[in-house]
Amino acid sequence: MAPVRASRGPWLVLGVVSTLAVTAIGYVHYDQQKQRTDMRRLIFEEKEREREEQARAGSQRAREGAPGAKDGPGRSL
């Protein structure tokens, strides 16, 4: 009697399923990293915008001579 040869079907299915699983996990990880990077960028841009607005408001106060403005006429020595 000839030796029984194992079929390749289950191994092929296992290979395809594991490849799809690894691909899905990699994509989820990539997507999470992308979202995290996007959030960091949004936070950075918002802080930058706030700094610019504060600088603009400070220079406006200095031009108007408001007390407490940097180098304005109302500045105490």
Description of the structure:
The protein has 77 residues and is mainly α. The protein has a domain at 30-65. Helices cover 73% and strands 0% of the residues. The chain contains one helix and no strands. The protein has one helix at 9-64. It is rod-shaped and about 100 Å long. The termini are far apart. The model has no long low-confidence stretch (mean pLDDT 84). Residues 45-77 are annotated as: Disordered. Keywords: Membrane, Transmembrane, Transmembrane helix. The chain crosses the membrane at residues 12-30. Residues 45-55 have a biased composition (Basic and acidic residues). InterPro entries: Pet117 (IPR031568).
Class by SSE composition: mainly alpha
- Rough shape? rod-shaped
Number of beta-strand segments: 0
Q: Percent of residues in helical segments?
A: over 70%
SSE arrangement, N to C? H
Number of helices, counting only DSSP H or I runs of 4 residues or more? 1
Distance between the termini: 107 Å
Strand content: under 5%
Largest sheet composition: none
Which runs of at least 5 residues are low in confidence (pLDDT < 50)? Answer: none
* Rg computed from alpha carbons, rounded to a whole number of angstroms: 32 Å
InterPro entries: Pet117
Keywords: Membrane, Transmembrane, Transmembrane helix
